[in-house]
């Protein structure tokens, strides 16, 4: 009986276990960890639903601290703090005015997008591109407005040309004007006054380097050079006036002039009897041709240019020309000296040009032609400006003419007399508060020369 009771008890236990294992899963035995995880996920889902921006109500802060209830959204720019005593979050408005504008337009119950995504580099590039496009559009708009304003104030050139044609007025380029002036000057039917007027107008245009070079393209330069052969002194004067303006600092025109025989014609006019105004203009053209052109300087010496200038200076009534001649000689001497020094120090001067300067034997020619004595005697000129130029030239010729200067008693006495004169004038400058006056500079040049000649 005892054995039968044990078997019955085991059978009942097995049946009870079988029934429990086949019941509804929610009543089945589960892991405590899995149950707690599911409960946490359920709570997080509920919290996310409560914080969903689509269901958040906007909290309207004031300038006083107010408690923030769960589920309320705070506008951007609000001041939020955690109250350590109560554990609640409190909100109020920022004091700066710039945050007050964030509240404009917000109404109670309006949803607030609290997306906190930051801008990427691509977003910034896109925004910058749009900003540039906007600036270009604005600039284009301003340009259009400016162009419209210009159109209102000024008429198109086509309309002006049409109106001028109706009035028999033609708009000409500089080239067309120069061609017309040369034709007028070269025409046998033009009067003397018309030729002089054409040359006078032409001189204005050839001051520009490009215009002077354009004069070569249609043979205008040679026409003006041939004008130096005219029997009319006025034609010679104004032809030389045009040539001097065209030669100035224009190597291309200078070369064409040498090839066209301008140098010979200029020297002939200076060597013959001509009115003083004509010789002034011819000397001006000669100076423009020789400066910075060593080949022309060589030809000048070969053609006896120094003798021509000596005769010009020694003639009566040519003191004005004498000062200009001395200035030319000073420029030529210093130009060659600076070119050689620059070549030795920097090697920037071209070998060909340096060789040309070395072939210009100007200083020996000046000594042989008696320019040491001629220049010294020009110190007797009364004008301060003329004396200044003569003193400069004497300083440039000092190395070549030192012995000649020492043997000239007139030069020494003139320098002593000028020294006393300029000492008095320099003292007056000092009284007037001029520490470095004009006369003090002249006095310094005189003192230097006297020191060198002792």
Automatic annotation (TrEMBL):
Q: Which residues form the signal peptide?
A: 1-21
Identify the InterPro entries for this entry: ARM-like, ARM-type_fold, Hsp70_NEF-Inhibitors, Nucleotide_exch_fac_Fes1
What cellular-component terms does GO give this entry?
endoplasmic reticulum lumen
Name its cellular compartments: Endoplasmic reticulum lumen
Q: What keywords appear on the UniProt entry?
A: Endoplasmic reticulum, Glycoprotein, Protein transport, Signal, Translocation, Transport
Q: Which residues form a coiled coil?
A: none
Q: What is said about its interaction partners and assembly?
A: Interacts with HSPA5.
According to UniProt, the name of this protein is Nucleotide exchange factor SIL1
Organism of provenance = Zalophus californianus
Taxonomic lineage: Eukaryota, Metazoa, Chordata, Craniata, Vertebrata
């Amino acid at each position: 009986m005892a054995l039968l009771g044990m078997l019955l008890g085991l059978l009942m236990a097995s049946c009870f276990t079988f029934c429990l294992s086949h019941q509804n899963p929610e009543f089945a035995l589960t892991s405590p960890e899995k149950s707690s995880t599911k409960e946490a996920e359920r709570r997080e889902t509920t919290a996310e639903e409560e914080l969903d921006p689509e269901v958040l109500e906007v909290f309207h802060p004031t300038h006083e601290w107010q408690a923030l209830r769960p589920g309320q959204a705070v506008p951007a720019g609000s001041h939020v703090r955690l109250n350590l005593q109560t554990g609640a979050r409190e909100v109020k408005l920022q004091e700066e005015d710039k945050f007050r504008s964030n509240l404009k337009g917000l109404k109670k119950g309006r949803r607030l997008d609290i997306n906190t995504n930051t801008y990427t580099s691509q977003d910034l590039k896109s925004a910058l591109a749009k900003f540039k496009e906007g600036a270009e559009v604005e600039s284009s708009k301003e340009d259009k407005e400016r162009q419209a304003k210009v159109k209102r104030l000024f008429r198109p050139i086509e309309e002006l040309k049409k109106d001028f044609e109706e009035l028999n007025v033609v708009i000409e380029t500089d080239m067309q004007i120069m061609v017309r002036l040369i034709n007028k000057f070269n025409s046998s039917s033009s009067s003397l006054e018309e030729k002089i007027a054409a040359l006078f107008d032409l001189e204005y245009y050839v001051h520009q380097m490009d215009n002077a070079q354009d004069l070569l393209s249609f043979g205008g330069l040679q026409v003006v050079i041939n004008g130096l052969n005219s029997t009319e002194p006025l034609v010679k004067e104004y032809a030389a006036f045009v040539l001097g303006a065209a030669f100035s600092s224009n190597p291309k025109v200078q070369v064409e002039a040498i090839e066209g025989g301008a140098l010979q014609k200029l020297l002939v006019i200076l060597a013959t009897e001509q009115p003083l105004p004509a010789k002034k203009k011819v000397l001006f053209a000669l100076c423009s041709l020789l400066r910075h052109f060593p080949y022309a300087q060589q030809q000048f010496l070969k053609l006896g240019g120094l003798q021509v200038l000596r005769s010009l200076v020694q003639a009566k009534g040519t003191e004005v020309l004498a000062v200009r001649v001395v200035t030319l000689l000073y420029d030529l001497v210093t130009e060659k000296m600076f070119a050689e020094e620059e070549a030795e120090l920097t090697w920037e001067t071209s070998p060909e040009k340096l060789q040309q300067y070395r072939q210009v034997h100007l200083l020996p020619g000046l000594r042989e032609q008696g320019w040491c004595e001629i220049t010294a005697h020009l110190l007797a000129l009364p004008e301060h400006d003329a004396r200044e130029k003569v003193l400069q030239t004497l300083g440039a010729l000092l190395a070549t003419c030192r012995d000649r200067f020492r043997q000239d008693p007139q030069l020494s006495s003139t320098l002593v007399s000028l020294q006393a004169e300029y000492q008095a004038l320099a003292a007056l400058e000092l009284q007037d508060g001029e520490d470095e006056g004009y006369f003090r500079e002249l006095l310094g040049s005189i003192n230097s020369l006297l020191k060198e000649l002792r």
